[in-house]
Design brief:
Elements lengths: L14 H10 L13 H5 L14 E8 L2 H15 L3 E8 L15 E2 H10 L4 H13 L3 E4 L12 H15 L3 E5 L6 H13 L10 E5 L17 E5 L1 H11 L13 H13 L5 E10 L2
Parallel strand pairs: 1-2, 1-5, 2-4, 5-6
Antiparallel strand pairs: 3-4, 6-8, 7-8
This protein binds zinc ion (ZN).
The site of zinc ion (ZN) has 6 residues, from β1.
Length: 289
C-alpha cells in the first residue's frame, strides 16, 4: 500500500524532540508535523517586535532560583536592552548546603556575578543564579536563605520586610513577581509579601506591579485562574538559551513544561494571543500613572 508517510519529508522538527516524544509515548506514532520547532519556523534570531522606551528601574522578586528566568527572563532582557536597570531578589537558594560560603544578605552587583559564580563550585544554586543574572545583564542580585517549599512556615511580616528592604534599596518603578494562584506555596506567599510591600502609600516608588506565570506551577494549580492582560514581545529562543546555560538542571524533557520545546511553544502561544511572535504574559496587579 502506498501513500503519504508521516515519517518522511523535509518537514520534521529537531531529532531530539522526536526521540523525546517517542520515548514518552511508546507505541504511539506522533504526528511529526507538529514537531517542527518554533525556531525552525520563525528563525533563530527573531527580534522582539515592540521595544521598550525610557529608563526605568525594575525589581524582579522570585521565590526560587530559575523562577526569574522562567517567569520573565525575556522581559528582563528587553528591559536591559532598553537601558532599564533591573535588579533580582530571590528568596531561597534551594536549601542546599553552601559549603565554604556564608551567604551574606547583601546584594551582589553586576561586576561580581561572573567572578563569584566561578568560585562557588560547591553552591550550584548560587552559581546558576549568578550565571543567569550575568546572562540577563541585570544590575544586582540578592539571594536569601528561606526554607525551600516551606514559606508557609515563615511569618508574612518577615517576608514582606525582606521585600521592603529591597524596594528601599532599589526604588523600583516596576515590580514583577509570582502570580498568587500558583501551586507552589512559596510562590503564593511571595505574591502576598510583594503586595504588602508595594502598598501604594504616598511617595511609594512602585508604580507598576505585574504577576508572571511559572511553567509546571501556574497551569498545574486548580482552578486555573491566570488570565493575562499584559503581553510582552520577547525573543523566545534567547530566553530558552539562558535557561539552558544557567539552569540546565531545572530543565526537563521536551514534553514537560520546563522542556525547551515547551518553553518555546508556550512563548509562541502567548505571542499568538496578542499578535506577536514570542511573548511573556502577565496579570496586572496595579498601574499608577
Ligand atoms: Zn519557584
Amino acid at each position: 500500500m502506498s501513500g503519504f508517510s508521516l515519517l518522511s519529508g523535509p518537514i520534521f522538527g529537531n531529532e531530539s524532540a522526536k526521540e523525546s516524544l517517542k520515548t514518552a509515548n511508546p507505541g504511539l506514532q506522533p504526528d511529526f508535523h507538529d514537531l517542527k520547532t518554533p525556531e525552525e519556523i520563525f528563525g533563530l534570531n527573531q527580534k522582539a517586535e515592540v521595544t521598550f522606551t525610557g529608563q526605568k528601574t525594575v525589581l524582579v522578586v522570585a521565590a526560587h532560583c530559575d523562577d526569574e528566568v522562567l517567569g520573565c527572563g525575556g522581559t528582563i532582557i528587553k528591559h536591559v536592552e532598553a537601558g532599564d536597570k533591573v535588579h533580582i531578589l530571590i528568596m531561597t537558594d534551594g536549601g542546599g548546603d553552601v559549603r565554604g560560603y556564608k551567604l551574606e544578605r547583601s546584594h551582589r552587583l553586576k561586576d561580581l556575578f561572573e567572578k563569584e559564580a566561578e568560585a562557588m563550585a560547591a553552591a550550584p544554586a548560587w552559581r546558576n543564579a549568578h550565571k543567569a543574572a550575568h546572562l540577563l545583564g541585570v544590575e544586582s542580585l540578592q539571594i536569601h536563605e528561606l526554607p525551600d517549599s516551606r514559606f508557609d512556615s515563615v511569618d508574612i511580616l518577615d517576608l514582606a520586610h525582606l521585600v521592603e528592604a529591597a524596594i528601599d534599596r532599589v526604588r523600583p518603578w516596576v515590580v514583577y513577581t509570582h502570580y498568587g494562584g500558583d501551586l507552589s506555596v512559596d510562590h503564593r506567599r511571595i505574591n502576598e509579601a510583594v503586595l504588602c510591600a508595594s502598598r501604594p502609600k504616598p511617595g511609594h516608588p512602585v508604580k507598576e506591579l505585574y504577576f508572571f506565570e511559572g511553567p509546571s506551577n501556574t497551569e498545574w494549580a486548580f482552578p486555573l485562574t491566570f488570565q493575562p492582560q499584559k503581553f510582552v514581545g520577547i525573543n523566545a529562543g534567547h530566553k530558552a538559551d539562558v535557561m539552558e546555560k544557567a539552569y540546565s538542571g531545572e530543565m526537563r524533557e521536551h514534553n514537560h513544561p520546563r522542556g525547551r520545546m515547551a518553553i518555546l511553544h508556550h512563548a509562541y502561544d502567548r505571542g499568538s494571543q496578542a499578535g506577536l511572535v514570542g511573548a511573556e504574559a502577565f496579570m496586572v496587579g496595579r498601574i499608577i500613572g
